[in-house]
Predict the structure of Cytochrome P450.
Amino acid sequence: MAHPLSRYRLRLLNDFIRIAFVPFLIFLFILSVLHVRPGFLLLPFYLPFVFSCALVRNFYSDYHRRQDAYARGAKLPPQVVGRWPGNLDVLIQRRRAAQSDYLAEFYHELFQKYESTTLNLKLLWIDMYITMDQEHIKYITATGFDRFWKGRLIKEMVEPFLGAGIFNRDDEEWKAHRSLARPFFSRDRATDFELFERYTNTTLTIISSLSASGKAVEVQDLFSRFTLDAAAAALFGTELDSLRCALPVPGQSAGTRMKIVTTDKFGSFAQAFEACQDVYMGRITKGYFWPITQITHDDMTPHVKIIEQCIHPMAARAVERKAERKRVGMTSAEKQDVFLDHLAEHTEDPKHIQDQLLNILLAGRDTTSCLLTFITYFMALYPDVVRRMRADIMEHVGSGVPTSENIKALRYVRAVINETLRLFPPVPHNIRETRHEPVVFPKTDGTFGSPQDNDSIYMPANTPIMFIRFLTQRNQALWGSDAEQFDPDRWLDDRLARFLQNPMMYTPFNSGPRVCIGQNYALNQATYFLVRLLQRFDSFTLAPECQPEGSLPPQGWKHGRGRQAIEQIVPTAAVSTYVKVCSTTSHHVPSYSLIHYFFR
Ligand code: HEM
Ligand SMILES: *[C@@H]1O[C@H](CO)[C@@H](O)[C@H](O)[C@H]1NC(C)=O
Ligand SMILES: *[C@@H]1O[C@H](CO)[C@@H](O)[C@H](O)[C@H]1NC(C)=O
Ligand SMILES: *[C@@H]1O[C@H](CO)[C@@H](O)[C@H](O)[C@H]1NC(C)=O
């Protein structure tokens, strides 16, 4: 079945019964006790009644939770208290902050205001935990892994798009995906330098010719194409050629969204792929009650149809190829070069193949292009860093093609990558949910609370928690007072000890059983690209004059905190981190957008 029943409608119905219908029955009951005949005139009484019921229910569940927490030797974290009922003002502020504030500053201010690294946002009376506490993140992702899962909230938002893929499943199903996908991204694949060279070459050719004619390069757009084409080759075995399509012209194509202009099926595939992420982000910003806007139609489905039209025939061909291999007597143990064929060895269900492909494409594309975008941004800001990277490369690689051995020797380049992933983690936060049991976080020393001191934090069952590594990785309490400075040397001098003693303060690739399986792949691909780039260019400049209006940092930031005062671009986040490129307020998808660096 291509589109599983949209569970969110059922959920909404359930919520409706709980919030409005049960009070309705109670209301009727009260009326009958009072011998009042029901009628429309009573509507003005009914609505406040529903509201009061919500308050009472909320009050009761808070009370119950506090008792349960104490009984377990724990306490509730501070709860954000807004001015309006249901913290509606906080919800609105958050939306506004996502459009105009420095990335995650909204959350940072809340953590400071309530003097706690874990909080309950409590939006519209619904529990929503946020944390930047490395110990809590450790418990969620590693030591207490079994007590959490991806959860209902996220699943129902992306079901049509990511379906039964690795990102969207838990337990046995997830394990099966993971053991299927992991071998493919093993060492062999992660060092597929032939493939890296092919797309690096095309990308550098574009940069060379633009720079030869003194033009600026839109790096974010270019890197999205680079990683998309490389991913398509490795996953589908297809030339997507987005690098050969018309590139956006710096300063002219401001604000347009989809930059893949081809109308062939791959062009529309790429667009549909982004549109799905767009819809997903919209759902997240609307919050818990997003399905109200999608009762009659699911915004995601039309885009998913386009994706299907593209992938199903490829999946079918892969299944044929498998039959062909069997016929000529090849064993399935032989290594498959293309992920699609690797999948077809294990399943013939085209929907299953599609889900897996899309999940990996999502995981691997924007993340790596984000890394490259922010590294080159820092390279443009700090010429001295470029000089040292080049020296590192000249010493260990020279001017030839890099090998996996000499990539390992590039310590300074790796420190630059580490430092970039620290300040701008491509995945700035993740969301998990407690299962059907409440959770008590261990205390800092690893022990659990005792009934005398209610020191550990308590989380109710079925409650989402967002962990914001973006803030953990800039926390001065962990990194020292220079936490917001870009300084690759912190990975090479005694400051490294801080990280070695407390590895959870830096988790760009996540940690625990769901740690990223593409880590080596991504690091190798990015390093390979940087080596080739730096063998050719020695100076990088930002070209703010080419940047579209509204995409430069607002004046007020000059007096802001930390990096705000020095930032030359506006970092923003959708599913992954990206550079803001236009002034429109729609939360559109990062890729194919504009930022211009001059490569000279
Ligand atoms: C700089 C690049 C990358 C970064 C920073 C990154 C980061 C992450 C993070 C934070 C997660 C955890 C997400 C969550 O649990 O919700 C993750 C998961 C994952 N990543 Fe990456 N990733 C990168 C590149 C890649 C690449 C290139 C691939 C594959 C080609 C990949 C494949 C995956 C997969 C399959 C998962 C899901 C693992 C699971 O749920 O068991 N990633 N990645
Ligand atoms: C790309 O490859 C071709 C053929 O190997 C080579 O002549 C050219 O110099 C390469 N271009 C870049 C930018 O590396
Ligand atoms: C980079 O970070 C990793 C952890 O992700 C660490 O093990 C490694 O030592 C760091 N290396 C350098 C050179 O910074
Ligand atoms: C812990 O909770 C109990 C309520 O069960 C309360 O009486 C006690 O004062 C609390 N202890 C601390 C240290 O807050």
Remarks:
- The chain is about 50% helix and 5% strand.
- The chain has two domains: 1-71, 177-429+468-599.
- Residues 1-71 form one domain.
